[in-house]
Amino acid sequence: MDLMRRCALIAFLFFSGPSVAADIPPVDAPDTMAERVKACIACHGPEDKEGRDAYYPRIAGKPEGYLYNQLRNFRDGRRHYRPMALLLEGLPDQYLREMAAYFASLNQVFPPPEPMNSSPAEVELARTLITRGDAERKIPACVECHGKDLMGIAPFIPGLLGLPRAYIMAQFGNWQHGGLMRGQTPDCMSEIARQLTTDEAIAIAAWLAAQPVSEALLKRSGPAAVLPAELARRCSSIVLQPGGAQ
């Protein structure tokens, strides 16, 4: 059974009604969030997993607001992935906030960096876009939104380090083309991604995946606390407050 089907089955068993489990002996499990989200851990465990259809990234340690937004997006159809929709169907906002807070409180495990196979020209291209952007095409530098160390800006912007190159490329493709995971809802990353050429997206993904995340970096940086005013206005459509306001 592939990973996607296993995730859907676990979600069904965890969140289905009592009638489904009538013939299953009761289990004396602790009533904790850690126990409740075991369906999530099947896919989003401590290590990145590559299934037949998609990557399942780590969610531990990501900003609480970001996780809450994504949970709501999957539940409400702004992001499309059937196992996630089944898992979250009918769950209230307050419960999604508790799930987000739980995963945000966990220490994030980072994998070793991927090998850097880019040419010097590709590395320079990636560094330029990541650190300076392209003002003529209205492409902000990655560091403006994701922090100078690319570790994220709390509470809504995730870090970019420690992600697989293929996962980053998949997200670029979904933003550019309104694909399966990102849906059709426009946001600032859709605008930015559509300005990038395929070569630029490949160069950025390869450079990010090749960067190490050291304990010193984690202690020094952590998520920054403030998004620049101009970018906060530009991205206001995706900053969903815990109460549901936009």
Q: What is the topological layout?
A:
Layout: H1 3-15, H2 33-36, H3 38-41, E1 49-50, E2 55-56, H4 64-76, H5 82-88, H6 93-104, H7 120-131, H8 142-146, H9 165-177, H10 188-195, H11 198-209, H12 215-220, H13 229-234
Antiparallel strand pairs: 1-2
Count of spatially separate domains: 2
Protein structure class: mainly alpha
Find the CATH topology of the largest domain. Cytochrome Bc1 Complex, Chain D, domain 2
Through-space gap between termini: 40 Å
What's the order of the H and E elements?
HHHEEHHHHHHHHHH
CATH superfamily of the largest domain: Cytochrome c-like domain
C-alpha Rg, in Å? 19 Å
Give average pLDDT, whole number.
78
User: What coarse outline follows from CA principal-axis ratios?
Assistant: globular
User: Ranges with pLDDT <50 over ≥5 residues?
Assistant: 16-21, 237-246
User: How much β-strand is present in the residues?
Assistant: under 5%
How many helices does DSSP assign?
13
Q: Strand arrangement, largest sheet? A: 1-2
Give the beta-strand count.
2
Main CATH class of the largest domain: Mainly Alpha
Largest sheet: 2 strands, antiparallel
